[in-house]
Amino acid sequence: MASFYAESHLRHIAGLEQRHGSISDEVVTALRTLIKLICRSEDPVEAIPFLDRCISIQESLHGPQSIMGDLDDWIGRAGHIDFKLVEPFQLRRLAIKSKLFGADSPEAARECEAIARRWASQGDYSRARAFLERSISILEKLHGAASVEVATTVDALAEIGARLTKWAEAETSLQRSLHLKETIFGKRSEEAGRTLLTSAIVHANSSKLERHGTRFERLRKAATAFAAGLDIIEERFGPDSLEVQKALEAMILAYLDCGEFSNAEPLLKRLLEICERTYGDDAAALLWILAELAAGYARERVDEAEPILERGFAVLRTFLDAGKPIFHRSIVNMAGNRNVLYGGRQKGVLETLVQASETLRGNLRKRWGA
């Protein structure tokens, strides 16, 4: 679709070209005005031909560094555009930064990472990985192979791999990250512990679509990595700390998401004990844990489900009696407040309890032939 603003502005630009020449600052200024109007009120894609023309004239007049502002402004407004249309301009910006600051400069490394993240947002892991590896190579030259800067970018590569379900690649990146963290911070460092916890979740998530033997092996790796990571976090923050609670919650949700209640159960029980000691036996922080236990028992061990269900509904009544109840999706530093409820997974806590109750009744009818 042609821009609403283009026709009248192009007539104005044609007049400027007659008076000042086609390669002039006056034409550049008019093109910039047109580009800003389009980006403000229309699709930035419509501005691409005018941006091309603008930066070509500007570069011929004042050199490549003079177009950085034009590139920065348009790229900043083009976040929702198909990156295939944006990449040529971002590559041009990378080339200018490489020329101005050096091919192995921090500026070039940051630009490579920015391009990688845009490709990741488009779901293209291979292109994202190529630019991140280029960034890592630059950072290794700048800071050394075992440096915080390199480790941070390797973590970004692992996160992108996991987000795009490239599980094998994500696991490889996390192993690389763990080696770096242990070298930089020490094997018992918080950084190494958190990388182990992340690895555990990736192993669990990667088991979803695998065959039985491979699935079992990935779950075994998940349990091993989680135990090692949690041990470090406990050592650093204490066995009942909020950090330990967050780690347990994240691993529980990963197991539940891939249908592994048997793996989640001991962690749910442990988290329940911590929350009871920390917040009290009827705090709303216990409710999502009781709901998930009830749901699992209702499916697999009906004899254990009923007392957990009864307790869950009792805690829910306490929460509903609160004057101003508060809801959070994850554990935060308000768990001691009896008015705060945690949801765990996306499904509602009440819905989980009701479904568990219905599942329990259904399984009891099957047992007794009713």
General description of the model:
75% of the residues lie in helices and 2% in strands. It is an all-alpha fold. The chain has a two-stranded parallel ribbon with strand order 1-2. α13 (261-279) runs antiparallel to α14 and α15 (302-320) runs antiparallel to α16 (349-368). The radius of gyration is 28 Å and the shape is elongated.
Residue runs with pLDDT of under 50 for 5 or more positions = none
Spatial strand arrangement across the major sheet: 1-2
Kindly report how far apart the N and C termini lie. 66 Å
Order of helices and strands: HHHHHHHHHHHHHHHEEH
Please, what is the average pLDDT? 89
Features:
elongated; 16 helices; 370 residues; mainly alpha
Write the layout of secondary structure elements.
Layout: H1 6-20, H2 25-41, H3 48-62, H4 68-77, H5 83-101, H6 106-121, H7 125-143, H8 148-163, H9 167-185, H10 190-206, H11 212-237, H12 242-257, H13 261-279, H14 287-300, H15 302-320, E1 326-328, E2 340-342, H16 349-368
Helix pairs in contact: 1-2, 2-3, 4-5, 5-6, 6-7, 7-8, 8-9, 9-10, 10-11, 10-12, 11-12, 12-13, 13-14, 14-15, 14-16, 15-16
Summarize the structure.
The protein contains 16 helices and two strands. It has 370 residues and is an all-alpha fold.
